[in-house]
Amino acid sequence: MKDIEPLINHGHIHFGENKVQEAVKKWLNVKNDIKSIKLHMIGKLQTNKVKYVIPLFDYIHSLDNLKLAEKISNEQIKKNKIINLFIQINIENEKQKSGILIEELNSFYKTCTQDLGLKIIGLMCLPPNEKKSSLYFYKMQQLAERLNLKEISMGMSSDYLDAINFQATYLRIGTKIFGNRN
């Protein structure tokens, strides 16, 4: 927490976390004390962790399958709390990555919003490491426009400037700010 206190004291309120247990330890008391803090779940989310995420987080950037969408919907009803959600797109159909395939996006979006009542505010992607990110950022911009979504979560410390050029509204630039994780 000592690393982020200067940011909080300077007025920064949006923070991302990859790991649920780590976030609960780090943020539970802080969020109780500072109500304006907005916490973003940016890592892979397993269905068995959703019950811990809904009370603590304000955004989930990694909605990547129907089972998870159903679990989030059920937990939101139980906890009487609505979360802002990003659908994670597997932008290059990479087998090792999670996410909705582009050809399944319209159907998945419709199921999430109409059948499950989820608040989908945008799309998220993690482009392939070895290729030029801007090609994928352009695709994401087009997909978001097609669904009339205003938010796009893409871009990290190495490519955030390109992401901004393609209308990214949420960036993951922790390494640039805090350095590499231990």
Structure description:
The chain has a 7-stranded parallel sheet. It starts with a helix and ends with a helix. The protein has helices spanning 5-9, 20-33, 50-56, 66-79, 105-115, 133-146, 160-165, 174-178, and strands spanning 14-17, 38-41, 59-63, 84-89, 119-125, 151-156, 170-172. It is built from 8 helices and 7 strands; from the N terminus they run αβαβαβαβαβαβαβα. 42% of the residues lie in helices and 19% in strands. The mean pLDDT is 92. The chain is of the alpha/beta class and 182 residues long. β6, α7 (160-165) and β7 (170-172) form a beta-alpha-beta unit. The longest helix has 14 residues, at 20-33. The protein has one domain: Alanine racemase (TIM Barrel, Alpha-Beta Barrel), CATH 3.20.20.
Q: How are the SSEs placed, and which strands pair?
A:
Blueprint: H1 5-9, E1 14-17, H2 20-33, E2 38-41, H3 50-56, E3 59-63, H4 66-79, E4 84-89, H5 105-115, E5 119-125, H6 133-146, E6 151-156, H7 160-165, E7 170-172, H8 174-178
Parallel strand pairs: 1-2, 2-3, 3-4, 4-5, 5-6, 6-7
Helix pairs in contact: 3-4
Question: Quaternary state, please?
Answer: single chain
Number of domains: 1
Distance between the termini: 15 Å
Q: Please list the strands of the largest sheet in the order they lie side by side.
A: 1-2-3-4-5-6-7
